[in-house]
Amino acid sequence: MTQHPLTHPWRVARVASAALALTAAALTVSGPASGYGAPQAAPLAASVQTAAPCLTKPSGERVRADSPLNGADPNDVTPAQTQQVEARLAASARQRGLSAGRALGKTKIDVYVHVITTDKGKGGVSSSRIKKQIAVLNKAYAGKTSSKSKKTVFSFKLKHVDKTKSSAWYDWSSPEVDATDDVNAKTALHKGKLDDLNLYITSLQDGLLGYSSFPFDGILDLDGVVVLNDSLPGGSATGYDRGDSATHEVGHWLGLYHTFENGCSNPGDEVDDTPYQADGANVFSCSSKLDTCLTEGKDPVHNFMSYGDDKCLTRFTKGQATRMALMWQTFRAPGAGS
């Protein structure tokens, strides 16, 4: 993942290099959104831009609407960077003889959970809440959260849980603000390989709900997902306490962008069946009537890769399931990238 020691994410990622500044993907409670498809026109209503102008850069994390970062994701991915990644994906897939139509069988992902508390052991999460979080992931990725959600090939198995007492890491800053926590904690705690999910649970700062690396980042020690402890099921993050910050971030970990990536402009989020979505304050809305871009389709406000609250987010599309499978085969499956 391109999590830089200088600009890493919170549902965001570090920028290890300009070319990979889109390294991590994060989910904030106030970020922008986009869709995929043919080139899009400007947002439909001027009022949308007036009230919440599109961000200069698309984002890849999840933040709260009241975040001091004002919804700007530390893992922003520009259209040019998006195209670079897609070119790399296409080249790698061709080299390995992969295609979007090639089926990937059921794939179980081992999950290594790293719980970080204060020096005195405060702020941790119980084993019960961790198990509920894994259950939330399995339900979402099995397409069981909505009649309109598509099932993916992925499931998750809790492999290991460890707890670390560190007040410094507990006050985990957004990589956009300070990448020290991301680099130091992950380097010390990471387990497994690129096909294993490392889930870091801590007290994220700056209004962040979570952030993640992308599969194409390829930096093993920094690979993984970081989520706010209070966002796990039963937490105190009102509106974001059902565990879907992890659902969103794991989507990034498996190669998805935000639905509002690149706003109303091509290439959107590189998924054909997620309509384009303007990247303003509208991304926090759960109104199924929203239609912020001139292209076909209303805003995918219920998609797990948008920015609504947990109750609002209920589905993945077939195109997203296909993209995650291709990303897995290309960058995460054993032997991928070799």
Features:
single chain, 338 residues, alpha/beta, Collagenase (Catalytic Domain), seven-stranded mixed β-sheet, 7 helices, 7 strands, globular
Please, could you describe this protein's structure?
The structure is a single chain. By secondary structure, the chain is α/β, with parallel strands linked by helices. It has a domain of 147 residues: Collagenase (Catalytic Domain) (3-Layer(aba) Sandwich), CATH 3.40.390. The chain is built from 7 helices and 7 strands. The longest helix is centred in the N-terminal third of the chain and has 17 residues. It is globular, with a radius of gyration of 18 Å. The N terminus is likely disordered.
Question: Would you summarize the structure shown here?
Answer:
With 338 residues, the chain is an alpha/beta fold. The protein is built from seven helices and seven strands.
Set out the fold topology.
Blueprint lengths: L23 E5 L17 H6 L10 E2 L15 H17 L11 E11 L9 H15 L12 E12 L1 H4 L9 H10 L7 E6 L5 E6 L11 E4 L15 H10 L64 H15 L6
